[in-house]
């Protein structure tokens, strides 16, 4: 066999192997796992942990419950309006998601205050106005502190410090965005301050839209 033929054969083999690798990579992201515990170990069988029942009040004084998000894919975060650190970045990225999904009625957003003793309905309303929050797409909720902290830690597994300390009195401050499917199962966790992770979230939402 001539050198040129050997070269062509080798090149063909490399392309075949690369193609196989690409196909496997696509297969791996064709389905999202379920997350049933605070360590976020992915499970590829049907989930066992659903978001528990909740009832909070949004920026317009309306009651927001699980029923509000029934049949919806939604993205969750935790913040407080006077936060000078990561919250402005979280709110900005949630705002970007609101814009990105503005014409998709299936995708909703949900932000919980972790400082309900200060973030009253009127405070949330002003914050919503200042950040161009569309109340049809995005609810900012307040309510009972114990209920808010309980769902953050035991519903969404959003408080990383609590995993270590188990201290119920500790203040919650998390950078996580949590992706929840139409049935109330957690399907992804992302760093809401990082653009690359927000883009990953978008790809995962697309997978959920095509598989559920």
TrEMBL record:
Annotated InterPro entries: SCO1/SenC, Thioredoxin-like_sf, Thioredoxin_domain
Keywords: Copper, Disulfide bond, Metal-binding
Pfam family, one: SCO1-SenC
Keyword field contains Metal-binding: yes
Record-annotated Thioredoxin domain positions: 45-210
Sites where the protein binds Cu cation: 83, 87, 173
Superkingdom, taxonomy of origin: Bacteria
Gene3D superfamilies xrefs: Glutaredoxin
Gene Ontology molecular functions: metal ion binding
PROSITE patterns per record: PROKAR_LIPOPROTEIN, THIOREDOXIN_2
Disulfide bonds: 83-87
Family statement drawn from the similarity comment of this UniProt entry: Belongs to the SCO1/2 family.
Protein name per Swiss-Prot or TrEMBL: Electron transporter
Organism, as annotated: Flavivirga aquatica
């Amino acid at each position: 066999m001539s050198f040129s033929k050997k070269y062509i054969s080798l090149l063909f083999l490399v392309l075949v192997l690369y193609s196989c690798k690409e196909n496997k990579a696509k297969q791996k992201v064709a389905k999202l796992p379920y997350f049933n515990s605070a360590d976020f170990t992915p499970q590829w069988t049907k989930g066992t942990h659903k978001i528990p029942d909740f009832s909070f009040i949004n920026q317009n004084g309306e009651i927001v419950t699980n029923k509000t998000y029934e049949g919806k894919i939604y993205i969750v975060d935790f913040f407080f309006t006077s936060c000078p650190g990561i919250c402005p970045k979280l709110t900005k990225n949630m705002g970007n998601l609101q814009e990105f999904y503005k014409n998709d009625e299936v995708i909703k957003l949900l932000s919980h205050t972790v400082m309900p003793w200060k973030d009253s309905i009127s405070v949330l309303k002003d914050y919503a106005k200042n950040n161009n929050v569309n109340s049809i797409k995005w609810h900012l909720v307040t309510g009972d502190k114990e209920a808010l902290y309980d769902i953050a830690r035991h519903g969404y597994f959003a408080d990383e410090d609590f995993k270590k300390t188990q201290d119920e009195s500790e203040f919650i401050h998390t950078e996580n965005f949590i992706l929840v499917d139409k049935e109330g199962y957690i399907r992804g966790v992302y760093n809401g301050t990082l653009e690359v992770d927000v883009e990953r979230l978008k790809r995962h939402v697309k997978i959920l839209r095509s598989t559920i």
